[in-house]
Amino acid sequence: MVVGFGLVTFGIGCVAQPDELRLEEGVSEELARHRRATLADLSYAYELSVPRDAGALTGTLITQFTLRDDSNSPVVIDFKDPGERVRTVYVNGEAAEWTAVFDHLAIDGSAFATDAHNEVSIEFEAGDEALNRNPDFLYTLFVPDRAHFSLPIFDQPDLKAPFSLTLEIPSEWVAVANGVEVSQELLDGGRTRYTYRETKPIPTYLLAFAVGGFQIEEAEQGGRTFRMFHRETDTAKVARNLDAVFDLHATALDWLEDYTQIEYPYGKFDFVLLPPFQYGGMEHPGSIFYRQQSLLLDESATQNQIIGRASLIAHETSHQWFGDLVTMAWFDDVWTKEVFANFMAAKIVQPSFPDLNHDLRFFLAHHNTAYGVDRTPGANAVRQPLENLREAGTLYGAIIYQKAPIVMRQLELLVGEETFRDGMREYLTEFAHSNATWPDLIAILDDLSDEDLADWSRVWVEEPGRPTVSTELTLADGRVTELRISQSDPAGEGRVWPQTMEITLSAGGTLSTLPVHLDGEPLLLGDWVGRDAPDFVLPNGGGFEYGHFHLDAGSRQHLIETLPEITDAKTRGIAWVTLWDAVLEREVAVGDWYALLLRGAVEEEDEQSLQRVLGYLGSTFWGYLSEDERAAQATSTEEILWGQVERATVTTRQSSYFNAWRNVVSTPTGLARLHRIWEQVDSVGGMKFSVEDYTSMATTLAILGEGDAEEILDRQFERIENPDRRARFLFVRPALSADPAVREAFFEGLSDPENRAREPWVLAALGYLHHPTRTSHSQRFVIPSLEMVEEIQRTGDIFFPQRWLGSTLGSHNDPALAADVKEWLDALPDDYPHRLRGKILQSTDGLDRAARIGNP
């Protein structure tokens, strides 16, 4: 064994190249490839004892496998802090020598039989890092490489294996896991043993269990039993949502079985609702985990929240095939599971919402967010190389969740819907319960299609950024002499993004569409030569095109003046997003844009686009207007939005207007009204507020100094009965304090990883610290927050580093701060992790643009 430069190297035989296996912190691609080549027939059996108090979980592992390595090199099992947590290690019934190396156990290779069955037994103390322990419950979250933070395991996605699990827990608690429950056995001392049947082969990041004080709801649909575990104490809220939640799962399963022609692979179907869950959902086979508030909606829910719930359920259910049944071989292809989950979800929800414009829904759900990354200097490719799983969290973001489904829709248009579906079926059948790569899928579709998909994939999947698609309109005496659509590479590298497009043109208010295919050569629309000038040309009129669409000046001006008058809802929605892009590129004056938003807030008829308009309104009000402009607009903005609250006849629209009004309220008159509503002195006709709604009102009042902030927060805390919501409120409360010293102490506490354990709470608190009215004080937190990002990525307590960055930077627009951040970035060492640097550049882009636009 040689130790040096942060690596440990072991000599190995002919099974791997190079001749030394290097160990480092985390699971390196080299280690993963070596184990993939030398381990087979792998299985795991865990027995875990869960205490009622904060004591450590203890357990045993028996893992069996065939070893195809005659070099006597160590067998490396991943486990964080093994020197402190491992009690005994036996190989084939004999005590074995092992060495703790970073977050690995290196077990003496001479203890193993080559090309034969081996059994390793380990007694251990489980690590808390991935157990998400709360006073009354805990749950695992092992994605992407955190299984070994708590358990000894070969922690890589391409060693899929069946898992057996036994849990011994306090009898007043219940348990749920991936496998089918086989038995419950009452033990002495108020304990119960749950035993679960061995699972189908699954990757380590999908191993899951939850134990604690959960209630269980059950339903039978289509011959299936669904069980929902939850901690909601509002029984009326549960009853109000229950049928919809079960129906949406059943609908998604039926659709996917029909589309894939493969039955649901995992038998039982449980799902667990967790109040502090880090993500919207996690697709553990047989036991999906969700954030509770995403499924149990309040009566004041908006249309976006209702459709979002359906999309989330469809997304996680799609993962049972895309990601669970067929798993990426390495996390460089993590996007493949996410793209198919989002892409299929968009199809699945359509029958449940027959009156919704689903093309518009797809556009609004994906393009704006993807553009928010691809327009920045930190833009990343859909598919990115990954050297070590400890960096896998940096791969996630808008590019794989939002851009990739757009790319997939372009692929479906390119090869045809039936060919695409047949390719998916072949892919799922060929690689069922195994692993696959993106090239594996492209090879299947290539065989079924006449298109050159490898070349198409290179620019769309392997390269970052987006094309600039420009409209050039030349007129003479009011008639068209030339109408040209062309694309260019903003990076100046000559790349071409071939794509199918539908150009929308308006003439005298009448819309027409022209299907085209754009590649490297400009398109000349000869049919328009000699005709009267169009009102506007929208080259992305289909809603599936992708790029920065640089409109001609006449089209931009016409849309600024008349956008709400366009009769087609999808065209209006596309125009809103396209003009926002133009605002950020300083092609449209922010004052003109804000006036249009106020008009759109009143006139936009489609509720999906309305919510986008209201979102832009809040972002522009706080981020892109100068202080003087904001003061001048505040009263009229509040009056317009409140007028719409009073006039709305549809509950979901009324909720959208109320939330938008609360988001911008800042005048004494508006705050006094909000205070009366929170006091329940004033009512809002037709709206029923939940305790969470009143909590949101209380936080706004506290931050903006309407009344005695501490008294308001004290009284709101007394209103909250649910223990999980009370715990969250207590955590974030210091960030709401009117005392800067209290807020500073809270931020200082975030340097301790234990205080970052509940990611949604931390991100909410950061939002309060950096509220737009507090940015002059919170600027002092920005550089320290940036300095913490590398540690946060390493510890994994904030899984998406960009969420930490967005919560920190999203409300700031001060040019001096932008300059300080740039200076900090420029001073980073050359060896600073390049993906983290990219995430920071993505997040600081909004600050840079807001500083330029809001402070001309």
TrEMBL record:
InterPro entries cross-referenced by the UniProt entry: Aminopeptidase_N-like_N, Aminopeptidase_N-like_N_sf, Peptidase_M1, Peptidase_M1_aminopeptidases, Peptidase_M1_dom, Peptidase_M4/M1_CTD_sf
Example GO biological process: peptide catabolic process
Occurrences of domain Peptidase M1 membrane alanine aminopeptidase (ranges): 247-458
Keyword Zinc among record annotations: yes
One Gene Ontology term of the molecular function aspect: zinc ion binding
CDD domains (UniProt xref): M1_APN
Keywords recorded for this protein, A-Z: Aminopeptidase, Hydrolase, Metal-binding, Metalloprotease, Protease, Zinc
Pfam families in UniProt: Peptidase_M1, Peptidase_M1_N
Domain Aminopeptidase N-like N-terminal, residue spans: 137-206
Cofactor(s) the protein needs: Zn(2+)
PANTHER family according to UniProt: PROTEASE M1 ZINC METALLOPROTEASE, PUROMYCIN-SENSITIVE AMINOPEPTIDASE-RELATED
The family this protein is said to belong to: Belongs to the peptidase M1 family.
Organism encoding this protein: marine metagenome
Protein name as catalogued: Uncharacterized protein
GO terms for cellular component: cytoplasm; extracellular space; membrane
